[in-house]
Amino acid sequence: MKLTDVIRRPLITEKTTIIREGGNTLVFQVANDANKIDIKKAVEDLFKVKVESVRTMIVTGKFRRFGRGGGMRSDWKKAYVKLREGEKLPDFLQGA
Question: Can you tell me the distance from the alpha carbon of 81 to that of 71, in angstroms, rounded to the nearest whole number?
């Protein structure tokens, strides 16, 4: 699995912005079959930072209506990546 396949996109929401400002924690949507070791290696190689810990969780898909019928959205995986003390956040997250 390529590094860019492991990390799908950064999650930039109000909650993740508060978490990022409070500590050196980044939040990403990652591939469902990626484990903590893959996520740690991908973040360290892509953003040139040192990772202290990785926490993952599965977000279950919501039930949504489509006209008269209904369906489920897909489940996806979220990763909280805590950077070591003194590490600088990536440039694309500085102003966000």
Answer: 32
Q: How far is CA 24 from CA 18, 42, 89, in A?
A: 11, 17, 7
Strands lying side by side in the sheet with 51-59? 7-10, 25-30, 76-83, 51-59
- DSSP three-state, residue 43: helix
Query: Residue 67: helix, strand or coil by DSSP?
Result: coil
Residue where the block lists tokens 């279950």: 60
Question: pLDDT tens digits for 43-77?
Answer: 999 999 999 999 999 999 999 998 899 999 999 99
Q: What share of the chain is helix, strand, coil (3-state, %, to 5)?
A: 30, 35, 35
